[in-house]
Design brief:
eight-stranded mixed beta sheet; alpha/beta
Length: 476
Amino acid sequence: MIKQTLLAFLLINIALQLGCFAKQAKEDFHIILIHVDDLGWADIGVLGSDFYETPHIDKLAAEGILFTNSYAAAAICSPTRAALLTGKYPARTSITDWIRAKFQGGSGIAWPSEYEENKGKEWRTPKNQGFLPLEEITLAERLLLYGYTNLHIGKWHLGEEGHFPEDQGFHFNIGGNDLGQPPSYFDPYLPEKPMPHYHLNNLPARKAGEFLMDREGDEVVAFIRKHKEDKFFIHWAPYAVHTPIMGKAELIEKYQQQEKGNQGNPVYAALVESLDQNVGKVMQELERLGLKENTLVIFTSDNGGLIGNPTQPITNNYPLRSQKGYPYEGGIRVPTIVRWPEKIKAGQKSETPIISMDWIPTILEYLGEESNNEVLDGVSLVSAFTNPDQIIPRDLFWHFPHYRGTDVVPYAIVRSGDFKLIHYFDGSEAELFDLKNDPMESQNLINSDFIIADELIGKLETWFAETNARLPVRLD
């Protein structure tokens, strides 16, 4: 009863903010948004993996549309997750870095005006917003107005208690809290040494040794069965394929026997296959229940693949350059597939650049919601579903005003047409690439294409002002 009362107040608050009350959708349909953690662009077969086996994900692509120039809103997780759920650039929410969990010393405090002084560096950088503010209207909260029953399962990583999925429009939360990775992939999903706050919410032990991906898949299937007569929205955010890299023994052994190509980590391959198996499990249940034709399925990732130690890499993002956390294509380009048999023709491929914020406008168009004056940075992709050769004319931006590790300095990016410019706030030479002719970003054109470089720098400066982006400042 208490939960229902809170949801009622939440619904009224959302309606007031959006200037509306309960809405009638243009048509009724189900939504499953699979937001994988750290899955690289080249980590699935349909995009060229020559080692990992992903038949179910590849089948999803064959039955829908594959986007080859799909981008995460950031090269790391929390900013992308906030962008997907709000439809806003990370620069607007000030969630521009990953959010520290409570056991890591996270405080859940927002820092709207303070800066990190970065010992030994010449620049102070903005402190990261510590949670997704409740004032932001999430996709789940929007769907409440249309009568959806909402489930979040898996990774959340957008703030500690008080800012969990159940506080952001989800009726049910399985596994989501402030953690950025699972303590373990094996039941009971706890670390070897006890650590305070280091556990998955609402995911009690069920069977010793059970693999987390199998458990997540079972929970999604159980929810679909229970709510098959309802309109449902499932935000399935698998903890895979994030560290700690673990896999089932029989799958690891299988990959140890296989010939290696560009990729060759048998444990990571086992983890990818477990993800794929459970995507297949969920898709098969939709078909068994007769729900496949009327379910919009979106499959994407929160950032590029993690290479880690180059002498013993976790994955390989070839032919893209670099990895998670970096401003190159290997850090921000991700695999993305959309399937809806009633609406989207099978076997399509699109090269138009898309980004994490596009899912809210896309879903709202299918619901029949007209545009209003609120800020949404994405665009609807419905026209691209019907005309995959269309290139949507717009610029895309990224903002990471932080230092990371030993070799990442604060940066911002703009992609305009085929050109991509990386601006470094510390004064390092900018980089300009022609992605059409140089997809591996091997030739920096910053000192040869002055006109294009100046134009893109101007676009970045305009965008900083429009989004009120918080910028690094030089120490006095």
